Amino acid sequence: MKYLSSLFTLFFILTHSLTAQQQPSLAGDWKGYININGQHLTNKVHFDKQNNGYSGTIDIPQQGAMGLHLQKIRVTKNDSVFFEFEAGGSGLAKYRGHFKTDSLITGSFHQNGYHFPFKIQRFTPVSTNRKPLPYHHKDIIIKNDSIKIGGTLTWPEHGKANQLVVMISGSGAQTRDENVMGFKIFDQMADYLTQHGIATYRYDDRGTGESTGRFDRATLDTLTSDAQAIVTYFSGNTDHHFNTITLLGHSQGGIVAGKLAARDSLVDKLVLMSSPSIELYKVLNYQLRRQFQQAHLKKSQIAKTLTALNDVLKAYRDNKNISEAKKYFQNQFSSMMNTLPDSVKNHINDLNKFATNQANSLIASFTTPQMLSLNFYDPKSDLRKLHIPVLALFGRKDIQVRIDKNRAPMQTALDSAGISYQINVFKDADHLYQKAKSVENENYAMLPKHFLKGFLPTIVNWIKRSNDK
């Protein structure tokens, strides 16, 4: 559930000079970082040599930017390097640098008023060739009215799987693997569950992969309806019949799973993986507060800014006084940004313009059709209606869906439902159930791309032993 894009953006200016007799080649893989006040933002860049120049892509994992296409790539006679890419709502990012050696490029970056140094070096990527899967797998298209939902069914090679787990991904347009900064969460879960006798189906969100439709127009009801179409398909499927169907929702996907489980008798079990039990606007508030505090903004101004943002969201919900609420929020956001430390202000060309752009970007992000359907939705209303077993999972070091904000409300709701449930807390887990080094950082890209010990066995054991509805 990463709703916040970085407040810092990129454009590169030349800072070094180097004279070389032979122009070095860009072709190949490069890895390095942007130095933002001592904090390193990892970059991975790949260049291919073409007849008329170069093509390439860039990954900035910590910002969730993967496979962005580079434009205007060039190397000049004095070994200066230039390339740029569109960074979505953050604007055009431009890199300008110089070859220090044939395997090291240094420069600085500039975008949307920011400028910071960077460097990248040649490296050899680790091979990702995968062995043949030791179980059956089949891509299946499931229809929901005019929408086609593409996904992958896996089931054990030997013996019949009586249980199916349908996986529902978190926020943002996700493919069936739920690939977050190189960590293919659902791909690894499907592999483990299937090798332990449980079938799985994971699918692409609308408008991604093999699924049709538009994700930017999808609401909570739309997402629930897609999941319901999948459950209905497998409940009546004669080729692949399962005695029980479990919904597994990760983060925002847990809200979707809970909503469907509360109303569809075909769902037998529910797994909530870092699923919020409070309204989304409250989740956004503590995520933003944490980021603003890390930027050393004045606490009193942060509080005023968040109150103003909530007023904007309420104005959109009620379709009343929207312009006035937006203007007030923009002013509060600008006042807050003026409390930035001078060391940060020095990297911003026009602070007022930057603040206005960032305020408008937050408004745009939090008022999409999907966000409007979720901002004030109470997940507990569904949990109180459940009649099936529930497994709830939390990470102690999760800073997106914090345990101190979500566990108690969830437990109260499940108690009210009078159902069998189990809550497991993993003390070293982050939001993705990687083993986190510190609760202060959400450095997903820097952590090993696998689950911490004991996480997957907990899910398998619960599914196999929990009573059916």
Short summary:
With 469 residues, the protein is an alpha+beta fold. It has helices spanning 185-195, 220-235, 252-263, 280-294, 299-318, 322-337, 342-345, 351-366, 369-374, 380-383, 403-417, 455-465; strands spanning 28-36, 39-50, 53-60, 65-69, 71-75, 80-86, 92-101, 104-111, 114-122, 135-144, 147-156, 163-168, 179-180, 183-184, 199-203, 244-250, 269-273, 390-395, 421-426. The chain contains twelve helices and 19 strands.
Q: What are the salient characteristics of this protein?
A:
469 residues; disordered N terminus
SSE topology sketch:
Blueprint lengths: L27 E9 L2 E12 L2 E8 L4 E5 L1 E5 L4 E7 L5 E10 L2 E8 L2 E9 L12 E10 L2 E10 L6 E6 L10 E2 L2 E2 H11 L3 E5 L16 H16 L8 E7 L1 H12 L5 E5 L6 H15 L4 H20 L3 H16 L4 H4 L5 H16 L2 H6 L5 H4 L6 E6 L7 H15 L3 E6 L28 H11 L4
Parallel strand pairs: 12-15, 12-16, 16-17, 17-18, 18-19
Antiparallel strand pairs: 1-2, 1-9, 2-3, 3-4, 5-6, 6-7, 7-8, 8-9, 10-11, 11-15, 13-14
Helix pairs in contact: 2-3, 4-5, 5-6, 6-8
